[in-house]
Design a protein that fits this description.
Blueprint (H helix, E strand, L loop, with lengths): L7 H5 L7 H15 L9 H15 L2 H10 L17 E3 L3 E3 L8 E2 L6 H9 L26 E7 L1 H6 L1 E6 L5 E6 L8 E4 L15 E7 L5 E4 L2 E8 L1 H6 L1 E7 L2 E7 L8 E4 L14 E7 L7 H13 L9
Parallel strand pairs: 4-8, 10-14
Antiparallel strand pairs: 1-2, 2-3, 5-6, 7-8, 9-10, 11-12, 13-14
Helix pairs in contact: 2-3
Length: 318
Amino acid sequence: MAVSFQDYYEALEVPRDASPDDIRAAYRRLARKYHPDVNKEPGAEDRFKEISEAYEVLRDEEKRAQYDRFGQNWKAGQDVSDAGGFEGFRGGEGFRGGEGFSDVRFDFGGGDFSDFFEGMFGGRGRRGGNGRAGQAGFDGFSMRGGDQEAVLELTLEEAARGGKRRISLGDGRDFEVEIPRGVRDGQRIRLAGQGGSGVAGGSAGDLLLRVRLKPDPRFRVEGRDLYVELPTSPWEAALGAEVPVPTLEGSARVRVPPGSSTGRRLRLRGQGLPDPGGRSGDLYAEIAVHVPKKLSKRERELFEELAATSKFDPRRGR
């Protein structure tokens, strides 16, 4: 399926010189608006995906720099060579090395490559008596294939529970991958022998899948702990209430103590991200007191009565 190019700055509704904080704030605002769990309008899910894709690129300093420079072709600099060693031979032009040889160039003047390898390996580069390198490689000389890297995007739920997942790469290969329970952002999963092909019978390199946790509009991740905003009405905060709070496994109910203010944290033990040993972090619900944007006539009367009766001064803390 062809994917059309989108302007990531336009997707997040920010200018091109937006700061990282501006980009983060724009993402959170738009993600809350278009998240499929809260917005059932047609097109909301597609808009949410556009927002998430744009944020994934613009939040990363290196990716953003590439995007600013190359636009829709920004991924061109991220390709991984299958060779993993020699970048290639070009007749008459010579040889440009792979990793470790990027600034070295050998010019054979249009001569036979076997002349060069004979000088290096004392004739071991020849096969038979025809004076040319064999099709399978050079006798007595082999090279391991290079390691390759790809990004494996996971939701917080997928990272927490682990398990098997089938992935497809851009080159048409697909694999069933065992994801460790509690895998971390930035961790690499190694698939032995699935990287670049070896030279002259050398073993294949490995494929390294670098885990990237997808942004989640509900949770902020700090180590193994999760933080979630808990919207609370003034009367719930003042009188106390039992309210629902989202978790990775669905939702739980938490007791808001009477007299709670914005910023108070309620701890749900063991509801964070697990580690490989089975221990889990905690989930912190951060109270955020919200007031109605529009008051009914009766609500206004009650708030006015409270204002006239109460001696509470929030600026003095009592």
